[in-house]
Batch of 2 targets.
Target 1
Amino acid sequence: MSPFVSDGKILDEKLNIHILYTDHQNHIWAGTDQGLYLWQKGQLVKMNTDETLQIRSISRLGEYLLIGTKQGVLYSFFLQDNSIKKLVDLHVEISDLFICQPDKIAIATKGKGIFMVSTQAIIHFNLSNGLNDNFIYHLVCDRQQVLWSCSDNGINRITNNNIFSFQGNDQLPDPVTSAIGISENEIFIGTQQGDLITYHLSTHNLKTYPNITQKKAQINDILVLDHTVFLATDSGLLQLSKLNPDEKLWENEKATYSISVDLEANIWYGGDELLGINNGEQLQIIPRLGNQPLSFVHTLKILGSDLWFTPDQGLIRYNIKTKKLDQITLTPESELIDITALYRDHEGFVWAGTSGRGLYRIDTSSFSAQQISIHPSTGSSHILSISGTDRELQVSGLDGIWVAPIQNHEYPFESLEDRYHLKKFYVYQICRDRLGQTWMATDGQGILRINDNGVESFSKQKNIETKVFYSICEDGKGQIWFNAMNDGVYCNIQDSLVHLNAENGLQSNDILSISPLGKSYFLAVSSKGIDLIHTADFNVAHYNFENLGILKLPELNSITVSEEEIAYIGTNHGIISLHLPSYKKQFSPSIQLDGLSAMNVPKNPNQNTFPFDSNYLEFRFSCNSFTPDIIYYRYRLEGLNDKWVQTSNQEVIFPRLEPGKYTLTLQSANNRSFNHPSSFDYSFTIAYPFWRTWWFIACISLISFSIIYFIFRMRVNQAGKWQRLEKEKAIAEFEALKIQVNPHFLFNSFNTLIHVIEMDQQKAIEYTQKLSDFYRSLLSYKDKDLVLLQEEMNLLKNYLFLQKMRFEHCLQLDIQISDEVAHTFSIPPLTLQLLAENAIKHNVINAAHPLTIYIFIQDQYIHIRNNINIKLTQEKGERIGLLNIKNRYALVTDKKLYIENDHVTFTVKLPLLNH
Amino acid sequence: MFKYLTLFYLLFQNAPEVYKTTNGFVRFQSTTQSEKINAKSGALRAVIDPDSRKFAFAIKLNSFHGFNSQLQEEHYNENYVESRQFPEANFKGRIIESIDFNQSGIYNVRAKGDFYVHGVTNHITVPAEIKIKNLKEISIKCILNINLKDYGIKIPKVVHMKLAEIIQIQVNATLLKSTTQIE
């Protein structure tokens, strides 16, 4: 009887399941008459396709699922976006799809034979080229990658060269072979009328088990495992022993069409309105052996192919292969006797220790028992454990440990404590390791080790506080394991000590029995269940009794493992056997991301950049583990918070993520400490809004710096301008001052004055008045930047009158400026005067060479022109004067002034300035 | 003269010998709590080739009578089987077990083939009983249950108390040996 059966109740809708398929990622797909379904979060979820497909075959190829329907259409279903595409219509039901090699697909049809499609060619196998029948039910592949098919007329073995067949009424009871299964070297064939045939590939031995379904029910599917074979038939699901198919182990009575095994070694089966899961071959409850019902089984041991165990009384030897049962009574009277220890020595005698009646030695050939005494004291009649070497026997009892050399079948026991001068103590279990050391799990003294150096307390050396240890044994790698009361298990590997308890992997701290399983595994049994520990990396897989519906309680130190690596555990109501299937590939739940949505809109997980306003992210995840076990989840978002957050919801939401780079790590494990978790990473980026991107910020910074720089420069320039204006003003003042005290001008003026006084008294008065006027206006003008043209004209006229007195008719003036213009426009003061002075200074003025100064307006410019008569001796200071005028003009206007010198005339053009 | 006769016989020896009939009996029954329908036809055409074990049965759907009312027969022809569009129903296939047609007796065999009605073909396997009376005469008895849904025959809700989902068809035919080819 297999526990963990979940039948029918797990199906909500009324589905007709025709095919169940497990892919390499442990996803369970169901092909039904109502479409394609996927097992997700405890139920079958429909994959929406436009039309309803009546599916008969499924196979996965990379990221696609190939689907064959009853109508004969082959579809490809793309897993990433759930889109479906019709590939080809064969018009006859596609009964099986098999991918034998990565580049070869075999399509079996009911009516057109088999198509082998590869990248190179399409080969069609049918009646015409050797196939027995075109109506094919199933395809399987053997270890040599050779395809076998079963059809309406027997089976075929198909290679490229030939087709081998056996068929027909001479070899098979029913030619309609509706199911086929394959093991290492044997083929199992099921027929329409319910017969099972086995064909051995090496010996070619054919064996028939007619009418195995007992109701002539058609066998639809066959699944061959390590020790058992499952048949899905029209009258139910059968589990048979592989070696002995007559032996029916279990049965379920609903019509089943398909069976599949998942990566965790669970069996899935489906039919009309039926879906079931059970744990397959892994755990079995054995309520009886032979005709012996089992109740309390607390001591059991496998010796060779015999299982020795103690039921309520006596000792039973059960041969697993022949199923023969022998019972031996150790006491002549039918006294109740409790056997607590079993051991086989190197000579082949089986030793049984009892509680109350001492030690017995059993001869296995004659199956007779002889009581052997240890010591006259009565305490030695209560035995706890027996062990030994090829030379000596070690027995631990309530009064200590007794050892005896094995010689001539005499067993002179002596006390071990006396040999090593120790106190007496209880030893629950003694074990001998491959190095020849004796280990003892004691009550009160911890773990003791005896080797050539003597006795030492191993647990004290390793600073383990616990003093009570129940069991001790050695695993396939030579590591020593021991379990303590309420403290889990310890494993000693060379110098280091590994401690496993309920926090970091075990289901409970209270371990009742321990045992190695094969070379790579170790079992720890508690009342909660069985923990399967991998001895290399200490990854723990759980078999939880409660979830599996097992109500039995294991006994203390009640476990034994057979040569075929099946563990037998004694309980209060029978024996539980545990087999670790060779096809079990997944031991701990593996986590996967189911979906992701941003702002409540589902997104494809391939997308890893989200815009800044799409920052409400929701992640949904789950484990594709169907073994009932408590699964713990946790997540960590690097970039937000580097702490792990545990959750029992299968989703995590981040409401407002700032722009930046993140990595979300999801983990699942079957223990609270997350030892050996399954991890999934997802890196993504929330993009910065454009106003926060580096290039935008750089541009803006550049622009603002430039603006600030230009503003700064402008102000500096303006300041400079003001400075220059002031400077020019100072220079003009200076010039004016210079003019004021120009000795030449005064000297000439006084000379002229004397001359005029001699000539005309009235003119002399006028001359002197004009001279003083000139000097007075000079004083008032020196502070102004601009004066009305009229005022400058007055000044100029005064100046020229004075000069004309001196030069008389040799100095001619031609001034043509209208009053209107003179009152509208302005001019920097002393400009015209300075220019006139320049003209007089630099030119010869005499009767032969008269000087004419023309002043007129043309094109918005004042022209001051004079004819040139270059004086040979130059007076100083002309350059400064013209430059000063230029600069003063530059400070008040953008208009340029022009100087033209064609060596005949000298013209200065000054722009007219508005008032 | 005898030479011609022997030739004649030899010719006949090479011609395939089949068993056939054109008036086999077919009855279909629908049983519900409110109504029982029992329609019959005697116009089944059947042929069986003993060598290849192939068989072919065909019947015209409008040859059924014995309905509970004229209206029911009309509905049967017009709305359910739509005999105007799909006048014929047939079952063609092979008998799985090989039986010796020369040995008289009753054999329980399986007939496996394509059953076509109302435009839909389904592959079915039907248990049948072949009784070999003598070298010239065999009789076939078989019962098949067909699910109307599998053949696209829809039952409106109004009527579903009166018409069953699964119809039982009984075939009872006597076939005689003849030497014409199989169609």
Target 2
Amino acid sequence: MTQIEATVAVPEEAGPKPDASDVTGQDRIELLTFRCGGRGFAVNIMDVREIRSWSEPTPLPHAPPFMKGMVNLRGSVLPVMDLAQRLGQPPTQDDPRNVIIVIQNGNRVHGLLVDAVSDIVHPTDDQLQDVPRVNAEDGAGMADRLFVVDDKMIQILSTSRILPEVSRPFSEAIA
Amino acid sequence: MDPMDAIRATFFEECAELLESLEGGLLALQSGTQTPDTVDAVFRAVHSIKGGAGAFNLSTLVAYAHEFETTLDALRSGRLTASAEVVGTLLRASDVLGDLVNSACLGEDVDVPDTSELKAVAGSAEATPGKEDDSDFNPVMLNFGLDPIPDDDIDLAPTPIEIETVPVSTSTAAPHSAVGKRIWRVTFEPLPELLVSGNEPLFLFRALEVLGRMSVEALDSDLASLSDMDVSVPRLRWSIRLEPTATDLTETEIESVFEFADDICVLTISQIKDEDENAPSPQAEAVPGQVSPAVVEPPKMTIKETADTAPPPAAPKPDVSVQPTPIGTAAPQAQTSAPATIRVDLNRVDRLVNLVGELVISQSMLAQGMTRAGLDQHSEAVATLDELQQLTRDMQDSVMSIRAQPVKSLFQRMTRIVREAGQATGKDVRLVTEGEGTEIDKTVVERLADPLTHMIRNSIDHGLEAPDERNAAGKSPGGVVRLSARQQSDRVVIEVSDDGRGINRAKVLERAIARGLVPEGKTLDTTEIDRLLFLPGFSTAQTVSALSGRGVGMDVVQRAIRDLNGTIAISSVEGKGTSISISLPLTLAILDGMIVRSSRQRMVIPLSAIVETQTYAAARIETLGPNQSVVRLHERFVPIVDLAGSMGFARQPTDDLVEDDTALLFVQPDESGTFALRVDAIEAQRQVVIKGLGENFGHIPCVSAATILGDGQVALIVDPGGIAEMAGLNRQNPTLQTPELAVQ
């Protein structure tokens, strides 16, 4: 019987819904806004697990430059990337006010290094705009929607698209 | 999940176990190591699969299992002898049954496979064909409520209590003093969970019937009136009188019939002597008189009548003085029952493993803090910390042992691979296994299945010769593949060896040159040639067969083993055979490592890979070129690789100065030869908790995992094999580019 209960309990750790779909369709979404490289961004607050202060990460070998490394998140190893670099901007300057936003996407948990967290906002659906098609390279396709706060543009990021792809373990190649 | 799906999942899980015991039993028959119970166990396995399949309407599976069972029945009753031929057929049938279970699990629709072979074997048994137990059994089941004797004092409300013993009557002796034919009385009271989990008492009785002649009485005194009846609560109890075919039937054997219903029913098993046999009837008349009048209803009660007349569940139970005496001795169940086991979700165990890991880390943080605080070495706090350390270590060991599993199941799976590969190649192959009891972490066991399958297929396809070739070489026509496991200190060594033709090194070299893996004219020693087999894209098979030689070669096996923190080595004698051995850590949770510093980063090198250490100053270093130097280790020169450099970490200008602490670690990752890792300092040697990088990181070159050090910093666990690969040490051809970095 333990077995049955357990199997029922296991699937999906009641995690937040993965993706862009949260952004649309609901009357009011709750967003965490933050600054990064001088620009304003937001993520769905349901994707945010926690916000923690900056600590020096352990670098990863042969990783892309935006991968800052990994830090100890209460006993598990959390990968941290510099969001500014990920979006094609210069690296984030060292500053004690820098924070790591821990986001969750499916089973993956990732830390985003940003300048500072700003606010929690509840924009209504009609305040949100689609991202206009621009022939841009930088961070293209990372934002889902846009909206304006205090006359400044805020980009709502798609958590699934920010996360770098991981190479699959080799053992799968055997089968 | 739908509760039905959960039950279904449990059924298939049990099927896997049953198939395992089926195959294990058949293999025991094949090797002649069977015990008297083996055939019964095999029969029971097939029977349980059939029973469960019936509950889920898996008609194909039922049909095949039925044929299988019929054949096994002939074997069990002695009409058929377990000749090599018969066992061979049965083994093939067990493969088919396994396939059917698989496709049933996936919900595929398949036709009933050809059963002619089974039928032929069953038909070869002399005289009567296997009996249909369905038809045979039914009349017994109709013996509903003959004499409703409440012949034990089990509580009315079904509660999950320990196996309850029937009160011992003073007149009886100990079970073993009973002479002559023993009769068993089994009372069985299902708990509600029994029905929820899809068990069917009928199937249990059928399995019991296999043991001997039996008669079943249903005890319906607990039946509620129809209006009060809750269909999900079983109210019937059964009392079974069993006259075993085998006189030496033990209680454990009876208990094992109810194995799957172990904790979801109340079961009593006791022995009555032959002379007591007739006792139940007079007793039956005596008891009802003292109970409730309702129970004295005519024996031929139907359910409806019962519902009308039976006392409500709260009716007074027979008082203790009316204990039924027919039952002889209460056997000492407590002592004879098998060690209790529970099924636990693996996630729960993993959580525990993680927590213990955390404990180890906090404890080393505490130790560091205490040292910094300058506490006296003889103070009470330090002594207590030592004690704590001992306790955590013990706890770690016990937690790890929960995850440990014997490799037996893995090896058993390989017997099928051998059979199939032997058939496909037309070679006569025998698998010999050793050290099946060797235990290793469950994850390791699971992740070994693919590499082992690959290695065994390789052995059969490439290693073993065809029968006529073997004859010509003066070997017996049947080849032998040996699969062995043994523990060597804190590692497990698994070896696959064959008595085939061995590695044809000339051909290997020729092929490596043809593929541009080795420059022409280069001479390599035998181990270097053997190592070529692990290069990506290397395959010596002339023709691509269905079995192996698809271009996925030993390199993939090596990767898989390395992912498990293991190493792989190959040795071969031409004409005599090849042997590949894998050395694996006992656990994937803890690692003995050396903590080193390089370019201001602390990293952990697995102790198992380190052969020797030297201080840089004392080492005999020779320079070959601008960035190439070698060091003398005993009589050989080995290359020096800078740890931080090979990890791609930028060196600070000041780091280039060779410090006093600079050291060389001579490491030997599997087959790729020894090399020296230059590190800035060796800090400590310690057990570290392995934190898998898994889903968040994917595969990172040069790194096998990470750990958290005493001060809370994350440190990388270095994969020496990956470093050798990154530095291009495995390549015989220096002009070849290093492999593309698997970045992103």
